[in-house]
Amino acid sequence: MGEPPKTLTRQHFDLASFRQRSNGRAAWQLLVTLVPVALLWAVIPHLMATAALQWLMLPVLALLVLFSARTFSLMHDCGHNSLWSSSWLNRVTGFLLGCLNAVPQYPWSRGHAYHHKHNGNWDLYRGPSSLLSVDQFLQLPPGAQRRYAIIRHPLMLFPGGFFYLVVRPRLQLLLGLVELASAVIAELWRRPLNGWTAWRAFFHGYQSSHWYTWGEFLDLLLNNLVVLSSWWWMVHWLGAGLFWVCYSLVMSCSAAIFICVFFVQHNFQGSYANGSDGWSYFKGAIEGSSNLVLHPILNWFSADIAYHSVHHLCERIPNYRLRDCHRAHAHLLTHCTYLSLSDIPRCFDLILWDSVGLRLLSIREALDRTPQVQHP
Predict the structure, then answer these.
(1) pTM of this prediction?
(2) Closest CA to 279 of 110, 111, 125, 80
């Protein structure tokens, strides 16, 4: 392939050749993912009914965790409109996979698109953990600094993952509906709205702090209806205790996996951490995205999202072409960051953004180099 050019640009990559979507491959991916999920859940009551087989619950739940993480990755593809060749199929499949993962896919995909648009611009996007800059952190009182560190500890991925998938979407809908009802009552009190035109103007101009558009609200509402109905059905089938123990473990662990993967693919030593001034989309993709070196089995369960630099160069490349695209451009990606599983723990130290040095720091590094701020 030869040496990479001295000044690398996006034009050096032949990305269009890998954007072609295959409905056959998309259907096969869903088949080999969803059928095992259904079978694994179906076998649980039979295992629990036989004392000699109950030890098999551990591998069954472990497989459900991995398959759940894979369904999230496929949902992620639908959000990029890259799984199927049809936008409608991507939308419908994304909604259904969102219900399976208990998260509204449409609002999630819009937020994820914002991440892709601004990756590496830490003025605008600070990742799922909403990281602080060094200056912001140092202005916190000691107690708040400790809480900040605890909340972003790797072990918090598990309760955080459960909250992210199981609790947060329900809370968003509830709080959003209360907020909407309060706004309607306040508007009626201030000036009664008579007629469809007045009500239409009110709702058209209404802004919620829990969703950005009415399309997001509709997806949030329908997702909650489907998810809550599925919980009711599963409780009646398996029993409340068995269902919630299994479901909580699976959702917490699978969420921890994909949040962890997302985190380390953008928070790593030397990651591109620019501000708005001089920010480069291309550098955000190449220098602000790490590539994970995983066993082929783990690559399959994560739908090859480990090949993250080319994914950020072109999010329309389907997951089933990412590996080929990465290999075809391997000579251009030699200076990208590659992480092994053993590198992951160190990434979780990098939870502060140095807006002056334009890099990520650990709390210890920030405190060691900065005079302590005295708090009353």
Answers:
(1) 0.92
(2) 125
Question: Using a CB cutoff of 8 Å and minimum separation of 24, what contacts does 11-16 make?
Answer: 12/332, 13/310, 13/313, 13/314, 13/329, 13/332, 14/328, 14/329, 15/310, 15/313, 15/314, 15/317, 15/325
Size (the chain), residues: 376
Q: How far apart are CA 160 and CA 168, in angstroms?
A: 10
Helix (H) or strand (E) segment spanning residue 8: none
Tens-digit pLDDT profile for residues 211-246: 999 999 999 999 999 999 999 999 999 999 999 999
Helix (H) or strand (E) segment spanning residue 16: none
Distance of alpha carbon 358 from alpha carbon 178, whole angstroms? 41
Closest among 105, 114, 129, 79 to 305, alpha carbons compared: 79
Alpha-carbon span 307 to 323, nearest angstrom:
6
Distance separating alpha carbons of residues 109 and 351, to the nearest angstrom: 24
> Measuring CA to CA, which residue among 340, 341, 369 is closest to residue 354?
369
Is residue 61 over pLDDT 80?
Answer: yes
For 277-296, the pLDDT digits (tens) are: 999 999 999 999 999 999 99
DSSP state for residue 194 in the 8-state scheme: -
Q: How far apart are CA 62 and CA 50, in angstroms?
A: 19
Helix (H) or strand (E) holding 269: none
